[in-house]
Write a structure and sequence with these properties.
Blueprint: H1 7-12, H2 14-23, H3 25-38, E1 45-48, E2 63-66, H4 69-77, E3 81-84, E4 97-103, H5 112-122, E5 123-134, H6 139-147, H7 162-172, E6 174-182, E7 195-196, E8 203-210
Parallel strand pairs: 1-2, 1-4, 2-3, 4-5
Antiparallel strand pairs: 5-8, 6-7, 6-8
C-alpha cells in the first residue's frame, strides 16, 4: 500500500518496482512460499496494497486495493479487479471476503488501528487476515532502517516488530495467531523454505483469524 503523499514516487518508478521480482526470483519465491502457508486454500480473498499484482495469480486472488494509479493500471492488465483506495478508507461492503492479505504494506500505513478495523469490517465471520512484514528487529530490518534515506521506495516507511503488530491486531479484535518466517539467511542464490515461528526470519508472515462476528 503506497501512502497518498508518496504515491508519486511509485507512479514514476512503477517499472523499477515491478522489475525487482524479475531480478530477484529466489527472494520473490521465498516470500510466496511463506505466505502460501498462511493463505486459506478455499474462499474469496482480497489483497490490500497489491503493488503491481505479483502475488495475485500465484495465490489465486481476483480482487485488490492499491493507492498508486500507475500500479493499479498494471494490476488491471493482469486481470485482477482493483479499487484505487487506501487501507484506512476501504470502499468495500461489510463481510465481503473470506480472507484479506497485506504483504509489505503495514510499514506504509498512516493509521494502522483504523486500517485493521476496516479489514475486520470487510471480513466474513471467522475470516482470516494474513500479514507479511519486514520485522524491524531482524538483521534485514535493521539494514533497511539504516538505508531508508537513500532508498526511494522505503524512505517514508516505518518498520514494525512482529510483537508490535500482534498487539495492534489483538486490540483490533483478532486472535488465534500463527507465524511463519523465511529468509533466515537472505540470499539470491537459493529459494528458502518457510519455517514456523518468528524471531530469526527476515520476512515474517502471520495468519490471524477474526472473531466470530464483526462490528
Amino acid at each position: 500500500m503506497i501512502p497518498v503523499n508518496t504515491s508519486g514516487v511509485y507512479n514514476i518508478f512503477t517499472n523499477d518496482y515491478d522489475q525487482w521480482f524479475e531480478k530477484h526470483p529466489n527472494l520473490y519465491q521465498s516470500e510466496l512460499l511463506a505466505v502460501k502457508q498462511a493463505v486459506p486454500v478455499q474462499g474469496v480473498g482480497i489483497e490490500i496494497g497489491v503493488g503491481t499484482g505479483r502475488s495475485t495469480q500465484p495465490l489465486n486472488i481476483k480482487y485488490s486495493v492499491e493507492s498508486s494509479d500507475s500500479m493499479a493500471q498494471i494490476v488491471k492488465e493482469r486481470g485482477v479487479k482493483i479499487s484505487t483506495a487506501v487501507a484506512e478508507n476501504l470502499p468495500i461492503e461489510n463481510q465481503s471476503y473470506d480472507f484479506v492479505i497485506m504483504v509489505n504494506t503495514v510499514c506504509f500505513l498512516s493509521g494502522i488501528p483504523k486500517a485493521f478495523s476496516k479489514v475486520l469490517r470487510i471480513l466474513k465471520p471467522r475470516g482470516e487476515f494474513v500479514i507479511g512484514l519486514l520485522d524491524r528487529h531482524s538483521e534485514l530490518g535493521i539494514a533497511y532502517e539504516q538505508q531508508k534515506r537513500t532508498n526511494k521506495f522505503y524512505k517514508d516507511a516505518h518498520f514494525h516488530s512482529t510483537q508490535e503488530i500482534t498487539g495492534l491486531l489483538t486490540n483490533a479484535g483478532f486472535h488465534s495467531f500463527t507465524y511463519w518466517q523465511t529468509l533466515t539467511n537472505p540470499t539470491d542464490k537459493d529459494t528458502a523454505q518457510p519455517i514456523p515461528g518468528f524471531g530469526s526470519g527476515f520476512f515474517i508472515y502471520s495468519n490471524e483469524s477474526s472473531k466470530t462476528s464483526t462490528p
